[in-house]
Amino acid sequence: MSTIFTAEKYKxxxxxxxxxxxxxxxxxxxxxxxxxxxxxxxxxxxxxxNLQLGEDGSIEVRQGTKLFASLEGLTTGSVNCWYYNGHxxxxxxxxxxxxxxxxxxxxxxxxxxxxxxxxGSPDPWGETTFASFAEFNGELIICNGVNKPLIINQSMVxxxxxxxxxxxxxxxxxxxxxxxxxxxxxxxxxxxxPDRLYISSTDTSGVFVGDAGPNDxxxxxxGSRVPQGSSKIKGLGRFRDKIMIAFENAIxxxxxxxxxxxxxxxxxxxxxxxxxxxxxxxxxTIGEDMLFADHVGVSSSNKAxxxxxxxxxxxxxxxxxxxxxxxxxxxxxxxxxxxxxxxxNSLQQSYMLFIPNEGNAKQQTETRCFVYRRIRALNIDxxxxxxxxxxTSSCVSALKRVFFTKxxxxxxxxxxxDPVYKDRQGTEEMFDDSTAFxxxxxxxPVVSATDxxxxxxxxxxxxxxxxxxxxxxxxxxxxxLDTDGNERFDVKMFVDNLYEDRxxxxxxxxxxxxxxxxxGWDVDVLNPTLSMTFVGGDGPGYGSDEYGxxxxxxxxxxxxxxxxxxxxxxxxxxxLEGDAKGPLKFISITLAYHPGSVRx
Length: 600
What we know:
The chain is mainly β and 600 residues long. Helices cover 3% and strands 38% of the residues.
């Protein structure tokens, strides 16, 4: 018996007429480079540059920076800074110490002429590549590892740290690191005794071993207590009632203020192995935690709930490869110690770790900033990256404003109450068409400080997604975005693992030639299937922009209109990018599609 096959029986499966949609609004995962983006949830981002997770759960462009003070003519460049007694204190590369008042007016605190007027006419500080600070008994102590420490009193007078009873600093150690803990000033980082801890006499900052009594100061050599790695002290930190001594591959946990009769006998009864520090400047005490970075990533020290012992946990597992990528470019541990630093932004509740993108300072073009924001009450626990910055140091004022230094300039970071929407406002400006150079630097000097600044480039790339139907095709139809702000941005969609343009032969030389194999420089060129320009929900839309802005400004997202977004896919990836010169916040992304069969 034969079977009759008809064309009707084997006709092409029809796609469903049902229009489905899904909305992406959970972005709480932040930046994730460890997991494969074919398996990641959409709450994570493969790239999250110059964007941060807001308190309301949205993704928003970071704040920009504007010039606060210029130190031109006072120093050759900045090394480190600290906020003290209503002033920003800056240590220069030439050993000059400068104070900057609340209005941004700089003045020299200590240089050769100041040193010559001190008793005995001591030498000034020489060239320095590092500086650390500590406040003790209301005064500020500064160390650089090369010269004797300095002290600034509340009258803003700077002199050498000394024994106040006799006025000598003969026994004051030369140290690189300084910290105030409990009732003691603690120093370390002496080049001749790299494992030695110098602990002052109780309640004094200038009395050390060798000074006249009463004196309970003590020196402690810690090398024999380090279980592995170098015994050279890399930094000092504090965590509640404990002092933390950081080495390359271990952290000693100590307690000060324990005595045997009249002798001060500090105890070091605990050690955290396989955790160390890149630098003294990457340690930050934040409430119930102390955060620090080593060659692997960022960790946190906290106390166990029941035993009270100090424990450590890794916080940066999702972005460790990116941190390691920049750390691996350094061949000198000294350069790592001098040029990596961190700051805690209290207003954003964010730990900000800065690592230069090159081990050679002369080749450095950027200081990458790895940002960790954690607000437990709001379930915020995420990483993101701030780039297009090249800072040398940072400090936080009494009002919790963040300041950065670069060369002879000091900048202030914007915040929600005093927003800054462009970078380096006051020192660089854009072209007439509101663009900057390809490396996002601008012209200098500026014509108008208020109209100056360069755009903040941002990129947000989500993982691949299959709408929970991996085999089935989907016919994309519409896209809708909920946003705040008035900036333009591009939305790009990639489908079915087609990401880079394979036909691109690379970038040519300046003279338009290529290599002998007829290929150019390997520069990734993306190949999106769809691309469209939009404008934030507060933007006026096509034909309504004010004079001087781009005509139109992109498709407005402030209304519920549908924008055609047509293609066919099994997998898709979204990438949002742009150059912000104003506020912009992403609240949700919605895609509408027709479900199909397993066949394309």
